[in-house]
Write a structure and sequence with these properties.
- The protein has 355 residues and is an alpha+beta fold.
- The strands form 3 sheets. It has an 8-stranded antiparallel beta sheet with strand order 6-7-8-9-10-11-12-13. It has a 5-stranded antiparallel beta sheet with strand order 4-3-2-1-5.
- It has a domain of 102 residues.
Length: 355
């Protein structure tokens, strides 16, 4: 996917699809790939692999667009569905301020012969750079005329801290995964049930408990309610991301190796090696997630703190079997005053009768 920058938009192009991200209003608008021709002076700034969504820290802050800039393929499901681990994200500010330099892989088509270390801004000549530098100096001087109020500084500090923690969570934990062609949120049993409709878009049949970026793509999911054309355009950019751990290993059971220990008088088994795949998928619920010292028990909706569903899958030939385990906090309303001396849990609520 290529990311283009204009005065009013960031445009993400992926073949026949494009996503227009307004730098004026922070809105997302899915269009066709051919609509890029209508953009005024688009400049390619690099490559990304997917859109996580957008986020606003507080009501007065700017919208931030989260993009996947580094990834690793951890294996294939059913031999054809690539599963990727998110290693690094890039955050673009959806505002009309001068954008900061972004660390994206260069597009070979639009940056031929340019090294990553020699990245330059291609849409500005020397005169334009000089005018931009003058304007930044004037704007900086104007901002320093009146000192910022303490409330404004506190909001900026809070926003910066939350954003840093968000970037750190995606870039350093290596616990976020996605697959564009397979549902990672549902177990094999749920996908085989009669209530599971495989004809729907991938994000529509996901288990929303494990759809971690659901709130970040709410604008796109709301657009899908309009018509079928908009549903197809918007669904292309809705990428369900799960948090947890996914490990895929290809294994071989070689009978010839084991037969070396047999007695020479015993006949050796004439069997070809058997190949199979072992898969471990742990899905963490997005409801009531946090450290165990702060998130405990359940809430009024029945969501259990730090709920994790672990599925072990074995694929052999055309056979697939799975074993599922779940874990989480004690599923009652309880609290604990501290952890140093291990006081006994305290039940916060009694029996609740539903009629």
């Amino acid at each position: 996917m290529e990311v283009f920058q204009t005065d009013n938009h960031y445009i993400i192009l992926d073949g026949e699809f494009s996503l227009w991200c307004s730098r004026r209003h922070g809105t997302l608008e899915p269009k066709t790939g051919n609509d890029l021709c209508s953009a005024w002076n688009p400049v390619c700034i690099g490559l990304v692999y997917g859109v996580i969504g957008k986020i606003k820290i507080h009501s007065e802050s700017e919208w931030k667009l989260l993009l996947i800039s580094k990834q690793t393929c951890v294996g294939k499901l059913e031999g054809e569905h690539d599963v990727f681990q998110i290693n690094k994200i890039t955050v673009l500010s959806l505002s009309d301020t001068e954008p900061a330099e972004v660390d994206l892989d260069l597009c070979k088509m639009h940056h031929f012969g340019i090294r990553q270390t020699d990245r330059i801004t291609q849409n500005a000549d020397g005169q334009g750079k000089s005018l931009q530098k003058t304007w930044n100096t004037i704007k900086s001087a104007a901002e320093n005329v009146k000192p910022k109020k303490k409330v404004v500084k506190d909001k900026e500090k809070f926003e910066r801290r939350i954003l840093e923690e968000l970037i750190k969570m995606y870039n350093e934990s290596n616990t976020f995964y996605y697959c564009k062609t397979h549902d990672l949120t549902n177990t094999i049993q749920r996908q085989s049930s009669s209530s599971y409709d495989s004809t729907l878009q991938l994000w529509q049949r996901c288990d929303r408990r494990f759809f971690w970026n659901l709130h970040m793509v709410k604008e796109l999911t709301d657009l899908t309610q309009q018509d079928n054309d908009t549903l197809e355009l918007a669904s292309h950019w809705i990428l369900p991301v799960v948090q947890g751990c996914i490990d895929i290993q290809s294994c071989v059971l070689d009978f010839n190796e084991s037969s070396k220990d047999l007695s020479p008088v015993m006949p050796k088994p004439a069997k070809d090696p058997i190949s199979y795949t072992m898969i471990l998928i742990s899905r963490r619920s997005r409801h009531r997630a946090g450290t165990r010292s702060k998130r405990r028990g359940l809430d009024e909706t029945g969501a259990c703190a730090n709920y994790v569903e672990t599925e072990q899958i074995i694929e052999f030939s055309h056979h697939r079997v799975s074993f599922v385990q779940v874990r989480g906090s004690i599923p009652v309303f309880w609290s604990q005053t501290g952890v140093k001396y291990r006081p006994p849990p305290k039940l916060d609520k009694g029996l609740i009768w539903y009629i």
